[in-house]
Amino acid sequence: MKKYIKSILTSRKQLMLLPLMLVSGGIIQAQTAVPDTVYVSFAAATPVTMTYGEELNTVITASGIDGSSFSYWHVKSTGEEETPTGGNILYKPGKAAGDILKFSATPTVGGGQTLGFVANNLSDYFQFPSNTNDVVFFVSNRSGATLSRSLAVNKATLNIAARDTSRFYGDENPATPWSAKDFVFSGFVNGDTEAIFSNSQVNVLPDVTYGGANKASLPGSFVIGLSGGQAANYTLNLLVWSDAWPEGRGLLTVKQAPLTLAVPDSARLYDDANLKNISGKELLITEGTLKNDQTLEGLFANTKLQVTHTAVSAALGQPKSDVGTYSYELNAAAANTVSTTLSNYDIQAIAAGKYEVKKDTITITVFPADAEVTIDDKPVKVMQKIYGEPNPDGYFYLAKRLETGSAPSYAFSKAAEAVNYISATAEGDRGFKVAPLAGYFDYEGRKATEKTEASLKREKPNQKEDSVYVAKVDNADKVSSLNYAFKTVDGSFLINQRQLAIWKVIVDRVYGEADKDTTWTFEPNDAAKQRGLASFDSKYQTTTTPDDIIDFMPKVVVKPVAADNTLHAGSYNDTLHIKVVTEDKFIQPPFQAKDRNYKLNMNTLVPGTMTNDSVRLEVAKAPLIIRLDTIKRAFGSADPEFNKADVQKEFISYEGFKLDESANSLDSTATVAVGNRIKNLVINNRPEGVLPVGTYELTGISAINKENTNYEITIVGKPRYQVYPDNSYVMVWTPIQNELIVGDLVRLNAVVKQGSTVIAEGSQIVYESSNPALIQVEKVESIWYLRAKALTSDEGVTITARYNAESGQQEALKSEVFKVLRLKNEADFNVILGNMVFDYDGNGKAADVQLTDLKGITTYTPIITYNGDYDLPVNAGMYNISIFVKHNGSDLLVRKEKMQIKPREVIVKPKDALIAYGEALPEPFEYTYSGFIGSDDFKAASAPSVKVAGTITEAGNYTLYIDGGDPGENYTIVGETGTLTVSKAMLTISAGTVDIVYGDEIPELKPTYSGFVGNDNPDALNFIYTVKTLVNPVNAGAYDLVIDCLSSDEDNYAVTLVPGKLNIAKADAGLEWSVESTSITVGDSVLLYASCESPATIGYTVENIAVAGTRNHIEGVHVIGKNEGITKLYITVPESTNHLSHRDSVTFNVKLGTVGNESITLQGVGLYPTLVENNATVVSNSPVDAIVVIDAAGRIQKVINNPEQVIDLSQLRSGYYLVRIVLDNGEAKTVRIIKK
Predict the structure, then answer these.
(1) Residues 1187-1217, buried b or exposed e (16+ Cβ, 10 A)?
(2) In this structure, are residues 915 and 982 in contact, taking their beta carbons and an 8 Å threshold?
(3) What are the pLDDT digits (tens) for 192-230?
(4) Cα dihedral across residues 459, 460, 462, 465: positive or negative
(5) In the predicted model, what is the mean pLDDT of the chain?
(6) Which of 201, 759, 761, 831 has the fewest CB atoms in 10 Å of its CB?
(7) What is the tens place of the pLDDT at every residue in 760-781?
C-alpha cells in the first residue's frame, strides 16, 4: 500500500488519497494523512571546474559540494510554506552528495555537459528529522530554482614517445606519417586508446624526423625527433630519447645489410688443370643486394681471390680425379679480404662453388675400305665383305684432345684393347663403358645389313665408286667411358658381289594360255666358300620370280613353233621350242645378263641354244570340271536322248575349256580313238514300257571320260533322270445344296477334267465320308448318293471326291462340307434327289425328284415349280424348286430345293505364233473357238482377245492365254493356251581394225556390236567379249585380232564373231642431237650428243675427212678439228625392225686459233653426267657458292645457293641448258648439259 501511495505522490501535487478496499462486492472507504514536501535545488549557479577524465566524487570533493550547497523549500500538508535551515535537512545514512548528483554526459573539453540531480524524487537520499510529519523530497519545480551547474573541463596530459625502429644500410628510412602503433602512449583516461587518432581530423599524431639519417648513412643509431600533433581532450607531452630513456623508445638503428655470397660454379675438362683463383667481381650474391648503386666490380676492381679444390688435377696420362662434381672455395685470406671490402654488409656466408670435372674428348676414326690389317700373317681388308655375309666388326683409331700430331695415337678393334689408353682412378672404370660398334650406311642414310646391295661401279668421272658405303660408329650416341666423351670420323665400307651359278631353267605354262611361268634353279648357299644364294634368298633357289633378286636375268626365248598357245600339253627340251640368251651384242643397247649383288656364273648356260635337259618347256594340262546333274521329264514323256549335245546342256556343265573349245573338242583332242566326251549314258536297268514316276541313275561314265591330252578332268556329281507326275487332272465339283434333312438321299455329280476334256465321272469317282454315321455315301448301280442319317454339328461332315488315276498321274480330289439340319416330321415324305445339275443345251430341264412315304413303300408323283413357274427352265442359272404332292384335293408343299443349269463351255484356243527377239507383237493374235449351239456367238463387240503371259524379256517360249469375251449367260469361256516363240535376234560382234605406231601404247581393244535390240548393250549379254591377238604383238607388223569369249551361246542373240586386224606401223627413229658449238679450233674437239629411240646403231660420217674427224663416245661422238675449213657431219639411223631410217646433218667450221689458259682452280671444276636424267654431281676442289641454270633462250631457270655435291635437276624440261658453277673466290665455269 505504501508503494502505491508513493507512486501517486510522484505527481508532485498534494492530493487526498482514498484507498479502496473490495469487500463482499462493495467498496469500503478509508482516509490517510497527506505528507509534507521539501523541494531541493542548487544554492548557487557558478560553474564547476574539473579535468578531463576525473571521476564525479573527485569533482564534488574538489569543488566542496556538500549539504549546504543546496537550497530547500518546505511545503506542509496544510499548504503552509517555509524555508528550513540547512542544518535541519540531512542526508540519509550512507548517502552523500555523490549519490544525489550526476553528469549529464561524460564531460569533455568544451562539450557543454552539466552537473545535475540523479532523479526527480529524492526521498531516498534526504531526511527531515526535526519535522514530525511525513516528508517527501523532490527536485524543486519553483520558478528560478537552480537545477544544474555547468562544467568547465580542462585537458588531461597524454605522454607520447616514438617506438624504436631500424633499417638496413642503403634502405630508405621508415615511411611517414607513422601510425599509432608506431608510438608508445601513457595517460589515456575514460577508456580512451590510441584508436582516437585513427581516421580523425581533430586528434592528430606528431610528425617524425630521423636525426639526419638517410640511405647513405653508415650503420649506427639516430634519435627520432617528434613535433606537432594535437588531441581534443589531451595536452600532448612529446618525449624524446635520452640516455635515461627506457630501451626501445626513440632510436632509429641503421644495421649492416645482410649479404650471402657464393663462389661461382666452374668446370674443366678431365685432362685440364684446376683453376687457381677467381676475380672478386665473379662472386655470386645468392641472398641480399648491394646498396647505393654499388657493384662487386666497383668494390673489388681487379682483386684476385685464391681458391682451394677438392678435385685433384694432373698432367695428361697422370692419376687425377675422375669425372664428377666437386667443390672449391675461397681460402681464409680471400674470405677476410671479402669481409673488409664489404664492411657495410653483414656477410652471412660465402658458399663453396660446384666444380665439375667434365669428360674430355677422344676422336674415334673408322678405318677406310682400302685399309689392310695383318691377320694370321696375311693382309686382310677388314672393311670389306661379300654380299649376303654379316657386316665386319669394324676397326677404329683413337686420339685424345690434347695429343698433338696428325696421326691417330691408338688403333684397336676390340674394346678390351683400349683399357689402358682410356684412364680412370679405379681399374674397373678404365676403358669403354659402352664400346663403339661399326655401322654401315648408303648415301641415303639407310643402314647396311646382310641384304644391303653391292653396287657396281658407276661411270662418273672424278668420283669414287659408289659401291663404297659410309662406315660410321653406329652407336655414337651411346659410346661412353667414365672420363671421356667421343666424337667420330666416318670411314668407308665396300660390299663385293657374290658368286652365283644358275643350274636349271624350266618354262611352265597351261594348255590354252599364253601366260607362262619360268622356274629357275640357282646354286644354293655355300657358307664356307661365301658363294651361292645368300641365306636370306634361299627361298629363291627354285623360283618363278628371279627378277625379285636379279637385275637382268638371262632371256628365255620361246621359239615360234612353241609360242602358239595351242601347243599340246607335254614336256619339250630347248632344241625345238626354247632357248636361253645370256648375251646379245647385236641389239642396242647390247644385252647382258647381270646383277649388282651376284656375279652370275653362266657355265651351265652358255650363250645360244642348250641341248641338255637343264632347259625345258613344260605345257601342263588345263583343269576342266564336268558337273553332272539331274534331267527331268513329266510322266509319259519319251526318254531324252541323253548323249545328244543339246540335251546334255540341261544336266551337264563344263568349267575350264580353253581356246573356245567345247564338249565336242574332247573327241578331237582325245588320246583314244573313240574320244572321251560323255556319250554312253543309259538308264540303269530300264524297265519295259512307260517309266513310272521316280529318279533313275544314268550309267556310262568310265575312266576314258577323264583321259585327255590337254585337260586334267574332274567329274563332279552323278547323272540322273527324274520322272515327275502329271498334275493336269482337275476334280470339278460344286454341290448346289449342302444343307440336308434326315432321310434325304442326294445324288453326287463330280467330274474329272483335263482342260476341257472330261476324264472321269459317275462310278469312276470314289466318295468318302468323314463320319458315315451321320452322312453315309452309297452307290446305287452306277450313281453315287448321300444319305442323311442323323443331325450333324455346326462343323458338318466332310465328303471327299477322289479319282485315283493311272500310274504317272497325280491324284485328283476335292472335299465339300454337308450339314444335316433337322429331323423329318410325321407328315414329311422321303425325298430322293437325283440329277439336279444339268448343262445348257437349249432344251428344258426337269428336276430328278422321287417321293415316297416315310417307310419308302408308297410312291407319289411330285409336282414341281421352278422359281414359281411350272414350265421347265431352259436357260443357265440356279433355280429354286418347290416340290408339291396332291393331298386331299390340294397341293401340299413337301420341300424346297435348288436345281442348276450350268453354262455350256465354249473352248477358245490361241493359235501358236513366232516372232524374233525385239520384234513387235502381232496385233491381234489369232484364235479358234467351239461350243456354241446353232447360231449363238459372242455378244457384239465382246469377243475375247489373246494376250501374252508375263513380260517378254528374252528369247524363248511364252504362254498365250485368252482374256475377256462375253458369250452370253448360257455359256462360259474355257480358255486354253498357245505358245509364242521368241527366236534369237542376229548380233554381229567385230574385232575391228586398229592402227598404231610402234612404241605407242596399244589402246584397249574393244569389240563393236551390230544388231542390239531396243536399249540393249553389252551388259545384256551372258558372256564377256574381248579382243585379243593370237600372238603377242612384239614388233611392227599386222596381227590378227579375234573375239575372245567363253561362249557365244547367248539367250537372246544368235552371235556372229568377225575377226579384225592390229596394224603396227614402224616408228620414227626419234633422233635427237645437240652440240655445244659448231666452231672447232684445229686440234680441239667438241662432243656431239646424240640419242634415238631406235635400237639401231647411230652412224656418223664426215663429208670432208681432211677438215674433221670423229672419235666414238658412249653418248655420241667427238668431232675433232683437223684442218681449217667447213664440213658437214651426217648423222644416220638405219631402218630397223620397228623403226624407220632417219638422216640429219650439222655443219662444222674448223678454224685456227689460240689456246686460252684456264685457271688451275677451274680445271678441277665440272658437272657430270652432261646428259642428265634427274640428278647431276658437281665436282670442285674449291667451295662452290652457287649454281645457275640458264635455258637456251638465256632465261635463268634455277639458282641453287651453297649447293650440295648432288643437285636435283628433275624439274627441268627436256632440252639444252648452260650450267654456271660459281666458286666462293668469284671464278666461274660454264658447262653445257642436255636434260633428257
Answers:
(1) bbbebeeeeebbebeebeeebebeebeeeeb
(2) yes
(3) 999 999 888 899 999 999 988 998 888 888 999 999 999
(4) negative
(5) 84
(6) 201
(7) 888 889 999 999 999 999 988 8
- Against a cut of 0.85, is the pTM above it? no
Q: Are 116 and 140 in contact (CB under 8 A)?
A: no
Mean pLDDT over 745-764 rounds to: 86
- Report the alpha-carbon distance of residue 394 to residue 20 in Å, rounded: 139
Q: How confident is the model at residue 607 (pLDDT cuts 50, 70, 90)?
A: very low
Give, in degrees to the nearest 5, the angle at Cα 1117 between 1114 and 1120: 140
In order of 410, 555, 1079, 1233, the CA distances from 363 in angstroms are 10, 52, 55, 42
Nearest-5° Cα angle at 34, 32 to 40: 150
Degrees to nearest 5, angle at CA 218 with 213 and 221: 60
pLDDT by residue (tens digit) across 1098-1141?
A: 999 999 998 999 888 877 888 888 888 999 999 999 999 999 99
Cell 484507498 sits on residue: 19
DSSP 656-718: ---TT--TTHHHHT-SSTT--SS---EETTPPSSSPPSEEEEEE---GGGG--SSEEEEEES-
Residue with cell 626354247: 578
CA distance between the termini of the chain: 143
- ∠ CA 800-805-806, rounded to 5°: 160
Cell of 84: 528550513
**SS3 letters for 586-618?**
CCCCCEECECCCEEEECCCCCCECCCCCCEEEE
The number of helices, as runs of H, and strands, as runs of E, in the chain is 9, 104
Q: Burial level of 226, CB count in 10 A (0-12/13-18/19+)?
A: buried
DSSP string, 1004-1052: PP--EEE---TT--GGGSSS--EEEESS---SSEEEEEEEE-S--B-SS
Q: How far apart are CA 743 and CA 748, in angstroms?
A: 16
- Spatial contact of 413 and 432, defined as CB atoms under 8 Å apart: no
pLDDT digits (tens, 9 = 90+) for 329-339: 999 999 999 99
Q: What was the pLDDT predicted at 832?
A: 85
The C-alpha angle 430, 434, 438, rounded to 5 degrees, equals: 125
User: Are the CB atoms for 222 and 254 separated by under 8 Å?
Assistant: yes
Give the neighbor-by-neighbor strand order of the sheet with 766-769.
739-741, 812-822, 797-803, 766-769
Helix, strand, coil proportions of the chain in percent (round to 5)? 10, 45, 50
Burial 716-753 (b: 16+ CB within 10 A, else e): eeebbbebebbeebebebebbbeebbbbbbbbbbbbbb
Contact 1137, 1068 (CB under 8 A): no
The residue with cell 535376234 is: 985
Q: Is 926 or 564 the better-scoring residue by pLDDT?
A: 926
Q: How far apart are CA 562 and CA 558, in angstroms?
A: 6
Closest listed residue to residue 1153, CA positions, set 1232, 1106, 1083, 1075: 1083
Parallel, antiparallel or unpaired: strands 234-239 and 266-269: unpaired
**Distances in Å between the alpha carbon of 549 and those of 408, 445, 452, 541, 597?**
42, 22, 12, 11, 9
Give the residue-averaged pLDDT of 355-380: 89
474's CB contacts (< 8 A; 6+ apart) are 436, 437, 438, 439, 447
Kind plus residue range of the DSSP H or E element containing 99: helix 97-100
What DSSP state is assigned to residue 790? Answer: S
Which cell numbers in the block locate residue 1223? 666458286
Query: Do 455 and 596 contact (CB within 8 A), yes or no?
Result: yes
Question: In angstroms, rounded to a whole number, what is the distance separating the alpha carbons of residues 13 and 4?
Answer: 15
Comparing 418 with 372, the larger pLDDT belongs to 372
Task: Give the Cα separation of 37 and 134 in Å (integer).
Answer: 8
